[in-house]
Amino acid sequence: MVVNKYEIGLTHHTYILLLFFSLILLIFAGLRPIGFDSDSRSYMEMMKSLATNRLDSYIEPTFVWIVKSNYYLLGNNYYQRVSLFVYALINISFIAFAIKKLSINPLYSILIYALLFYPILTLTQIRFGVASAMFLFAIHNIYNKNLFLYLIKIIVASMFHVSAIILLPFYFLNRQKINKKYYVFLFILSIGIVFINASLKYMVLSHLDYFPNDIAKKLYTYLYLYGENSKFSDINVFNSLSLFIISIYLLSLYYIERLKSKYTLVLVKILGWGLFLYTLSSFFPTLSIRILNIFGLVSIVLLVEIIYLNKKL
What we know:
Layout: H1 12-31, H2 40-51, H3 61-74, H4 79-102, H5 106-116, H6 118-122, H7 126-144, H8 147-160, H9 180-193, H10 197-206, H11 213-225, H12 240-254, H13 264-280, H14 285-296, H15 299-307
Helix pairs in contact: 1-4, 1-5, 3-4, 4-7, 5-15, 7-8, 7-14, 9-13, 12-13, 12-15, 13-14
C-alpha cells in the first residue's frame, strides 16, 4: 500500500532535522583532519600534482575543474581543503535531496546513511561518492520515466567517476510489476557465481587483447600485478556489509506487497541486479566493492520501509 509521507506522522520538523544532520555530516567531512580516512592524503597529493601540471594519469574532468578553479582563486594555501569541502557539499546535498524524495522517513534514512555509507562514500572515495549520490537522486526519474533527466544525471555522475556509465541501462526497469520468482532466481544465480570467480578472472586476463589499451593496462594492473598483494587480493564476498544488504534485499522481496513507498519495486530491482553484478565482479575487488556500495545505497530507503512494516497507519 502506497502512503503519503504525512500519513506516517512526518512533519516539517522532520525535514528541519534532515537539514540539521546533513549539515553536521557536511561540516565534519569538510573539516576532517587529513589522514582521518585512508584516501585523503592521496587526494592531497593528486591535487598538488594537478595544480602544478604534474599529474600524468587520467582523472575525471570534474576533479580537474574543481581543483584548478580553487587553485586559481585561492592559491597554494586553501585550494586543497576547499576542494575536499566542495566534494562533501555536492555529495551530502544530493544524498539529502534523494532521501527527501525517496524515503518515507528521511530522518531515519540519513541516520542509516551516516552509519553505513558515510565513511566510504563521503569521507574516503569522494569522486565515486558523488557519482553514487547522483544515482540515488536519479532513481525517481526511473520511476517517472523521464529519460532526458536520467541521462543528464548519469552522464554528469560519470564525469565524477567513469564507472557510473554502467548505470544507464537501469532506466529501463519496469516500475509497475515484479516477478518475485525471477528475482529470487537472480539472487540464487548471484550466489552461484561466487564459486566460479577464479574462472572469470582467468577469462578476462586471457582476453585483454580485446580491450582498449588503457583499459587493458588497468585490468592487468589490478587483476595480475596486485593479485598477490593482500590489499587487492580476492575479497570476502560475504562480509558484514554485503550480508546486511542481502538481508535487506530478501526481506524487501518477501514483504514487497506490504512495503509502503511507490518507489519500492524500482529500488528492489536495482538492489537485486546490484547484488548480481557485485558477485559477478568479485574477482575484481576494486570494482566489486564499488558496485556493492553504489547499489547497496538504496538499502537506506528500503530498510526504513521494513521498519514501518509493524507500525499501524
